[in-house]
Amino acid sequence: MKLINHYLLLLPLIILSSCNAKKETTAISLKDSYKKDFYIGTALDANQIEEKNAKEDSLIKKEFNAITAENIMKSMFVHPAKDKYDFALSDKFVAYGEKNKMFIHGHTLIWHSQLAPWMTEIKDSTEMKAFMKDHITTIVSKYKGRIDSWDVVNEALNEDGTLRKSVFFNTLGEQYLVDAFKFAAAADPKVDLYYNDYNNEEPSKREGNINLIKKIKAGGGKIDGVGIQAHWRLESPSIETIEESILAYSALGLKVAFTELDITVLPNPWDLKGADVNQNFEGSAKMNPYPEKLPDSVQVKLAERYASIFKLFVKHKDKISRVTFWGVHDGQSWLNDWPIRGRTNYPLLFDKDLKPKKAYQSVMKLKETKE
Ligand code: XIL
Known about the structure:
This is Beta-xylanase. One of its GO terms (biological process) is xylan catabolic process. Its EC number is 3.2.1.8. The chain is about 45% helix and about 15% strand. By secondary structure, it is an alpha/beta fold. The chain has a single domain (about 30-365), classed as TIM Barrel, CATH 3.20.20. Strands 1-2-3-4-5-6-8-9 form an eight-stranded parallel barrel, surrounded by four helices. The structure holds (3S,4R)-3-hydroxy-2-oxopiperidin-4-yl beta-D-xylopyranoside. (3S,4R)-3-hydroxy-2-oxopiperidin-4-yl beta-D-xylopyranoside (XIL) binds near residues 71, 229, 275 and 334.
């Protein structure tokens, strides 16, 4: 009798602890927590593609189910000379994704930055069109059926929504946009084709982006999605602005992907917004306030910011195909060197020692409390 009483007293505790155990096993990783919503991706640098660091490699495999190459598929690396392609690393990148059953995103075919020098010298429209056709057709056909989506054109817009006077625009006019999407669709009719940019959640650039999408469609190009890079700040853009953009792009029948998510916690020179890789500024102690450690108060702000962003993403999961972080951990982030070299930034969910941060817990918790 006494024994039974004891057991009855303990029963609620036993049930509670088994529930907790279940919670822990169900929400084990980002990709599993969000698997019904959208892909959770990361950008891989060359060392990660080559699996050089075993600890990083197991973290990548555990947490992410989509990959983008941070640099190695950009034209300066993959097409260094007119008659020379170098696919050594991109072959490894695609094989890595296949081996781990990940969604593989190609970044990027037509972009004015990180261009091979020989490309910037093309002045003639016939030559430029021939280059674009060869470049896009060669790369997209090579990975036909293996790469799941492509950034066909990256960053063609100015902040006011007008078209950037890039080497492509200067030689071919706006028709280059339509042609790029046509060449890509011809090379792999089934692959998803994206236009990708930064700040294209901001109203004026968003308007320009919507016009650009309409032009591509009107010209007979196939476009399946828009990539919002999402190089964001603690205070901006507002959740409302992001939501308006999700709704506006998806109203055009496009998938929305957040393709390069990170959140800077450092001061911005002249309140710079965006991600123009050609902008660089002088460093100073004032601009690098947390060289050793991120203060708890900022850690909490970052966690709250990530939570509100992911809450919005989950609300619109039917419109969002993928959310990709621009890097695996803080130590790897490009924001340590841009727009000022040699700073210590903390923009991702894992710290430089690969430990999950408060921001990771807050993104995970969002799913646990709901289910
Ligand atoms: C960045 C990389 O992260 C850096 O390593 C490189 O030095 C510059 O480019 N928008 C893009 C990305 O589309 O390709 C850029 O990546 C960041 C901004």
